[in-house]
Amino acid sequence: VHKRLLGSFNILVGDPTAHPDSLLRKPLDDRWVRRLLLKRVRVDSTGRALWRLVGTSGVQVTSAGAVTDIQSVRVQAGVLDTTITDPLEMHRLRRVLHIPAGTDVVVTVTTGSADALVLLYRWHHRFRFHNNGDGTFTFRWTTSSEPGLRHFGVNALSRGTLFDDAAPYDSQAWLFPFVVNPADASLDR
Q1: From first to last of its 189 residues, what are the pLDDT tens digits of the chain?
Q2: Backbone conformation region of residue 144, classed left if phi is above 0, alpha if psi is from -120 to 50, else beta
Q3: What's the pTM value of the predicted model, to 2 decimals?
Q4: What is the distance of C-alpha 79 from the center of its chain?
């Protein structure tokens, strides 16, 4: 599945009440890619094939001309400790990340730049990762007590994207599905 997002990346510069031209707009041209696996389950009475989704990859979002890149995302949660190096790797739906409810999750992102800005997308919000100073960035959260399908994303932005008015928008993001299991559920799948 391919998607293209065109628009502008808007940055509020300084105090908007003191400076009427405090909104900086940078051209945004993001390309989204996700892989899906479908299985034909039957043919209906009209001869039309019926399909079911059985697998998915994560999503990779890369801005046009991007230099900033994500090299890996490590997810640690309870007994789960996995490192993802290809967001487009296919997974059966039953094999996406499973995390027990109420579990601490530590996400570590490795980029090609020690001065990148890395954000976590969760709960319709953005949170800044802690920069470890060596090209790795860490963020920790606790899963909710409600079981179900969730998503999280990591986004690496070049420093110039936010702090240099002349630098272009430069970004890469990886988005992943995960399942919050009831706290007493077995992780055997």
Answers
A1: 999 999 999 888 766 566 656 788 899 999 999 999 999 888 888 888 889 999 999 999 999 999 999 999 999 998 889 999 999 999 888 888 888 888 999 999 999 888 999 999 988 899 999 999 999 999 999 988 888 888 999 999 999 998 888 999 999 999 999 888 875 544 444
A2: beta
A3: 0.86
A4: 22
